[in-house]
Amino acid sequence: MMNKMQAVVIEKVTVNIGVGSPGERLDYAKELLSKLTGRKPVETKAKKRNPVWKLRVGLPIGVKVTLRGNIAHDFISKALIARRKPLSTNNFDKTGNVSFGVAEYIDFPGAKYDPRIGMFGFDVCVSLTKKGKRVEYRRIKSSKLGKAQKVSKQEAIEFVKSNLNAKIEES
Question: Cα–Cα distance between 36 and 107 in angstroms, integer?
């Protein structure tokens, strides 16, 4: 029997649509994310100035939604169906995060094409953790996390294979 503090769990799922500029397309992306997730999206702002793309610091260029709990688990299952291709080991980082993109939102189960919105893709970032990670972030008596409490790349791959029924190919 495995120690319950060593079990890998989904901390959060972040769904992101990057548009690149404010305006009508940003509003459509916001509407699409709220339809797909059932949550109110938040605007993401440019952090750097780039005159070539007419970006300045603080300009809204995308939208994101953070999901937790059962809603996050259900969303990942649907997003993996929409992805169609198997995940690569390159989709995993060394700290227990998984990221992948969905090219077209119409592949997402339950989503219908809206000609007014047009075609968008979105990114899904899944943060995996183990119980007890809070000690790193709490205000009083914070401490470093032990090596056993950190999610490794291999543990993340095993979790996604077994709990989310995803196919993973070596790269």
Answer: 12
Q: Which amino acid is at 149?
A: Q
Q: How far apart are CA 98 and CA 22, in angstroms?
A: 28
Task: Give the phi and the psi of residue 97 in degrees, each rounded to 5.
Answer: -115, 145
CATH dotted code for 12-169: 3.30.1440.10
3-state SS class at 10: strand
Burial of 56 (0-12, 13-18, 19+ CB in 10 A): exposed
Share of the chain above pLDDT 70, in %: 99
C-beta separation of 46 from 22 below 8 A: no
Q: Is the pTM of this model over 0.70?
A: yes
Which H helix or E strand runs over 137? helix 134-137
Mean pLDDT over residues 17-30, rounded?
A: 90
pLDDT value at 41 more than 90: yes
Mean of pLDDT over the chain: 89
Q: Which token pair is 37?
A: 């997730």
